Amino acid sequence: MSELLKKLAEHLRGVRNPDIHVVSGQNWTQEESRLADAIPKAGRAKVVDPRGTMEGVSVGEECAGRLACFMDGIERMHVPLYISMVPMAYGYVSAAIRARGQDKRMSSYRHKFEEALYFPHRLIDPGLLSGAGIRLRDTETEGRPLEEHPMILREAARMAISKQRGRIEAELVREWLAGFDGADQWLVVDGSLGGTLGGDYEKYRNPNIIGLVKSHQTQYFQLDEQRGILGLRPGERSGIFQPLGREDRAPVYSWYLRMRPNAGQDIYFGLIRVEAPAEDRTLDMADEISRWILAERAPLSLPDSRWDKMIYPIRDCELFLRSLAPNRTVLEASLSGINGRE
Predict the structure, then answer these.
(1) d(CA 29, CA 9)
(2) Under the phi-then-psi rule, with left for phi > 0, alpha for psi from -120 to 50, and beta for the rest, what region is 182?
(3) Per-residue DSSP letters for 100-168?
(4) Considering Cα of 284, then 288, then 293, then 294, what sign does the dihedral take?
(5) How far apart are CA 257 and CA 294, in angstroms?
(6) According to DSSP H, which parts of the chain are helical?
(7) What's the CA gap between 219 and 230, in Å, rounded?
(8) Cα–Cα dist 54/238, whole Å
(9) Which residues on adjacent β-strands are paired with residue 31?
(10) Which of 29, 161, 231, 309 could bridge 91 with an S-S bond, Cβ 3.0-4.6 Å?
(11) What is the pLDDT along the chain (342 residues), one digit of tens a residue?
(12) Mind giving me the DSSP string for 210-223?
């Protein structure tokens, strides 16, 4: 059961306030990918491949590599009540690093989670909930007041929850990197490395870490070069490039890799983008790293709809996180003490 919502229900059970509107299970969303990833946009990049081109090249036969640790995160949002028509959003964020042992079994290396209530403190006095003993987060943190529209306030809460997920993922990566002793093990991050490494990147030269990006909302090249990328065959990678215009993020090198044939499928079927630290070593190891990734294609990540782009250890992380996250039944049970009270 959600401890936060349980405490909230206990706090509000005796409150008779006509401005409190309780929602009974009508507003449930499960977000396991960041909202920002859903916005198509154009990016900039420079080619750094030693061949000087973005043309595809075969990486060779797949081979078992040194990918030993895997990190993913999830986020969930629910709006259990409104106060004076201001949505009070419950946010649950969680991330884990799972490690594969010599027996090939996965176990938890690190796990973090947080639940909090998100709302603009300018509009609703957090003192109203100070006795509930729960974590409260202000959704107005950019120095600009939000427009007082319930849907805009909900969207601001969703974005704040997503950013908090990014923070705990970054904490996990920093902990892993802090314990990195040069051992021949690698960490795979589901998604971009830029945000997770953050400003701490300079402390770790040549860390054994890569990111696997499944979404393709950012297009870094014009259509002529993009045709070559989308025409990659299974086992081929594109040229290596450096995404630009991300001064607030750690520099990375990146390349596209086709994991599965897409005949009769969408042009992005089986296509991922790999990120690694912007170091000379990455240029030398791109083919080798790609072969390691290709070896992770089995077992299939079914029944996940993204199975064509997902390696199974990342699927294992998601299953682990989902097993611990509050679901709709848990949330409704947590709020049973205040359901129906207007």
Answers:
(1) 20
(2) left
(3) E-TTS-EEEEEEEEEEEEEE-TTTS-GGGGGGG---EEES--SSSPPPS-HHHHHHHHHHHHHHHHHHH
(4) positive
(5) 9
(6) 3-12, 150-178, 193-197, 223-230, 280-295, 312-324, 328-334
(7) 11
(8) 5
(9) 75
(10) 161
(11) 578 888 888 888 767 777 787 776 555 565 555 544 567 788 889 999 999 999 999 999 999 888 999 999 999 998 888 999 999 999 999 999 999 988 888 898 889 999 999 999 999 999 888 788 899 999 998 778 889 999 999 999 999 999 999 999 989 988 888 887 667 889 999 998 876 665 555 555 678 999 999 989 889 988 888 999 999 999 999 999 999 987 767 789 999 999 999 988 999 999 999 999 999 999 999 999 999 999 999 888 878 788 899 999 999 999 999 999 987 777 777 766 564 444
(12) EEEE----EE-S-H
Residues 6 or more apart whose Cβ sits within 8 Å of residue 179: none
Residue pointed to by tokens 């003192």: 127
Only one residue has tokens 């009974």, namely 24
Q: Which two tokens stand for residue 222?
A: 């014009």
